[in-house]
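Technical annex, item 7. During the second reporting period the consortium partners agreed on a shared format for inverse folding records so that results from different sites could be compared directly. Each record opens with the tokenized structure and is followed by the designed sequence. A conforming record, contributed by the partner at site C, is shown below for reference.
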């Protein structure tokens, strides 16, 4: 009497996930495959459906259909992946592309100095700076990617930028000195 007709375990019932997957996966994959290669579209849709299954309360039926909700979430994840891969490919194109793009020798030297200084930072600071500035992620996205609290990610970025500036100015920092 005073209980739910279908009690669910903490992560939700498996049949519910299967039903949602059967009803929505194929169409979502087709839609996301317009943005990403098919194998990546499948991954994004699987992540989206799993996220929904783990946190079904995020869906509010008053705001639209479940398919629309899942489609918006999957599209956002797909666009994030696309932006991330574009940023990554821009970083990985090499010096030849920079020269072809009209970079001067002075600009190339400055870029090399920055890359060399980045390599001298601690790995946690370097990772945070690369995600925030080269992959163009927000503090929240950087924190999520690193599995940190947002404040911790901000601190790593700030201290990393401070150390990077000191390295570029030719000064050593305490973190860079051997112990």
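Designed sequence (site C submission):
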């Amino acid at each position: 009497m005073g209980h739910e007709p279908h009690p669910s375990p903490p992560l939700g019932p498996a049949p519910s996930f299967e039903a949602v997957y059967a009803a929505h996966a194929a169409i979502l994959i087709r839609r996301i495959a317009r943005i990403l290669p098919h194998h990546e579209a499948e991954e994004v849709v699987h992540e989206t459906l799993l996220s929904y299954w783990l946190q079904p309360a995020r869906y509010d039926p008053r705001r639209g259909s479940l398919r629309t909700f899942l489609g918006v979430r999957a599209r956002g994840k797909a666009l994030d992946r696309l932006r991330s891969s574009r940023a990554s490919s821009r970083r990985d194109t090499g010096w030849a592309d920079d020269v072809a793009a009209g970079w001067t020798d002075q600009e190339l030297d400055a870029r090399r100095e920055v890359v060399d200084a980045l390599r001298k930072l601690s790995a946690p600071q370097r990772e945070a700076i690369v995600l925030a500035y080269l992959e163009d992620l927000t503090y929240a996205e950087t924190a999520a990617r690193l599995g940190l609290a947002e404040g911790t990610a901000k601190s790593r970025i700030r201290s990393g930028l401070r150390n990077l500036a000191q390295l570029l100015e030719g000064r050593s920092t305490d973190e860079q000195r051997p112990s």
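Residues 1-15, 172-179 have pLDDT under 50 and may be disordered. The chain has eight helices and no strands. All partners now use this format for quarterly exchanges.
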